[in-house]
TrEMBL record:
Domain Polysaccharide chain length determinant N-terminal: 2-82
Annotated transmembrane regions: 12-32
Name of the protein: Polysaccharide chain length determinant N-terminal domain-containing protein
Localization: Cell membrane
An example Gene Ontology CC term for this record: plasma membrane
Keywords, sorted A to Z: Cell membrane, Membrane, Transmembrane, Transmembrane helix
Origin organism lineage: Bacteria, Bacillati, Bacillota, Clostridia, Lachnospirales
Species the sequence originates in: Agathobacter rectalis
Amino acid sequence: SQLLAIWRRRKWLIVGCVGGAVLLGLVLTLLVTPKYTASTTIEIQREGSNAISVSNNDTKTNFVDQEFYETQYGLLRSEALAKR
């Protein structure tokens, strides 16, 4: 009953303090820089690739290489890999 009397006398002060704290917390949460960020670079290479090889302009080889890289990129983007 004493708490109820205090609440009635000070209700706007209590509501204002709680509302101000919630508003301040919301503003700080929205303005703060995200703490956890990540980035990565993935290099895709064929097994047994020759590091000394000279560039080959053969269109068939370029098509096969492009297809290989697209396949590898697709596998890396797969949901199954992300779940593992």
